[in-house]
User: What shape does this take?
Amino acid sequence: MKRKHISGQDFTLQKKETANELKKRRKKLFGEIRATLLVIFAAAVLGYALITFGFQSMTVQGPSMEPSLSAGDTVLVSKLSYLFGSVKRGDVVAIRAMGSDAYFDIKRVIGIPGDKIAIMGGKLMVNDEPLDPSFDPGTVQSPGRLATPVTLGEKEYFVIGDNIGSSEDSRFSTYGNVQQSEIRGKVFYRLTKGKRGRITNPTEDRSEETETETESESEE
Assistant: This one.
C-alpha cells in the first residue's frame, strides 16, 4: 500500500486548523454557558420580583371570615390584581393601613365608591337594595354606623367579615371606611392542607356563567 506523503507545511496548516476549531468550540461553549447563566439569573430575579411585588402568603387571624376562611388558614394574595383592575363588590381583600406594622386584615368588600350602605330591619342594604344573597351574612344585630345610611366617597370601600357577629369592620367608627391605598391585594387562593382551593367572588362566577351561556346560545 502506497502511503500518502504529508509535507511539513501541510502538517503545520492542519495543526493551525485544529487549533482554530478548538478555539471556536471553546468560544461557542463559553457563549452557551454565559447565555444559560443569564437565563437562570433573569428567572431568579423575575421569581423574586413576583414573590416580593406580585404575590404574598398570609395567615388568617381570628374568626371574622368564617365559614369562608378560618383562623390559621394560609391564603395567597395577589398584589397585582388591582394594578390592572378595580376592586369589586364581593372581593375578599387584604387590608393594612399605610405605615402600619399590624398584621393584614382580611375582609369582604360590600361597598364601592359612591355606594350608599345601610342596615334596615337587621338586613344589609346597598343602594336601597338587599345585599347579594351569595355573601349576605344574615341578620345583623349590631348596626353601628349603619343605623343611618353611609355614602362612600371617592376611593372609599366598605368591608365586613362573613361572620358578622364576630367581626370588627366598617360598621364601627374605630374601623371606618377603607381607603383604596389600604387595600394591598386580592385574596384569591387558600393554601391550607385539606382545604386548598380558589377563593371566589360569587358575582364574578355568575357573570362568567352568563357569558358562557350567551356564547353557547350564539353558536346554536
Residues 207-218 have pLDDT under 50 and may be disordered. The chain is about 30% helix and 25% strand. The first strand starts at residue 55 and ends at 59. The radius of gyration is 30 Å.
